[in-house]
Amino acid sequence: MSAQWAQAWLRASAAVVHDRSTWLTELDAAIGDGDHGINLDRGFGLVVARLDAQEAQLLPAGVVLAEAGRVMLGSVGGASGALYGRALARAGAAIPEPEAGAGEVPPLEVIVRAFEAAVEAIAALGRSGPGDKTMLDALVPALGALRASAGTGTNLGEALARAAQAAEAGLEATRPLVARRGRASYLGERSAGHLDPGAASSALLVRALAETCPAAERVSAG
Amino acid sequence: MVGLVLVAHSPVLLAGLRAMVAQAAPAVPVGEAGGTAVGALGTSAPKVLDVLREVLAASAGDGAVILIDLGSAALAVEIALEEATAEERRLTRLSGGPIVEGAVLAAVEAASGAPLDDVARAADGAAGVPKLPQGDAA
Lengths: 222, 138
Prior knowledge:
The complex is a heterodimer of chains A (222) and B (138). With 222 residues, chain A is mostly helical. Chain A has one domain: DhaL domain (Serine Threonine Protein Phosphatase 5, Tetratricopeptide repeat, Alpha Horseshoe), CATH 1.25.40. Chain A is built from ten helices and no strands. In chain A, helix 1 (3-19) packs parallel to helix 4 and helix 7 (136-149) runs parallel beside helix 9. The longest helix of chain A has 20 residues, at 107-126. The mean pLDDT of chain A is 92. The termini of chain B are far apart. Chain B contains six helices and four strands; from the N terminus they run E-H-E-H-E-H-H-E-H-H. In chain B, helix 1 (11-24) links the parallel strand 1 (3-8) and strand 2 (30-34). The model of chain B has no long low-confidence stretch (mean pLDDT 95). Chains A and B meet through helix 3, helix 4 and helix 5 of A and helix 2 and helix 3 of B.
């Protein structure tokens, strides 16, 4: 993953979270505490300010993501801040630095490893798994799609597009679920019938990852 | 003297709790990690770690007990403790006790000069202290 892609993804994520902030907050108001969009918008805004301020273009992708994770940890506030913050930090740590032989690992494999690190971090910190009506219900299917593409010759752009579709299908599948984690779990059965706001923001982030993949990286074979 | 670190979504809530604790045990070091780094409702792992370090310093090596409110507070503390040093972790206990009752009971225990594990037990034990009047009504 190039540093340019990492930055473009964070900026695109900030933009889409800002644009969809009201939607995310409305989803959260239905089954949680009604601040998911506001919190994430604030956190990503600070991530972008950090990118602007520190000339992060000189930093490798892994460092860009890890620093974004630190900003999210301190500024987002809810469980989503801890979970996304930790996920970004772990994803960043999983991306090899260019001088450490990054070119030897297929680009899709790099993304799979970073995605795995992020998903494992969220599952471990949240003590949650698929079916709990959380961000994992979007992220785990997306990871499954990436893994299914790896080693098949599918180019990175196509693999990411499939991952984004899988995340969006996973989001839609949260609607009938009863929440087992977070503020929504206080509602019990009443949480069924609503999309999960964490899965919703996760699906937006995976879509942004697919859409910002630079053309030069998009065509590389998995 | 063992100190307390109070972690909650609302700085206003913690300001009130600090006043209650100070009334019961004014000498006990108390740190508040309420709200995010930008002052919104929520919790922040970096803020928890900063406050923990202040309280540990004020405790002069006796340690600190952390009390939390709901939801992400536990996650923020977990991340803060992972980023703390082994020595800082050795001197820290995280209590699952109720934050209001636990803070007051733990502060009273700490003010007596009790060691870290005793103060942590006082915080934990607050969950079992009856809140409603006990026994037959007169």
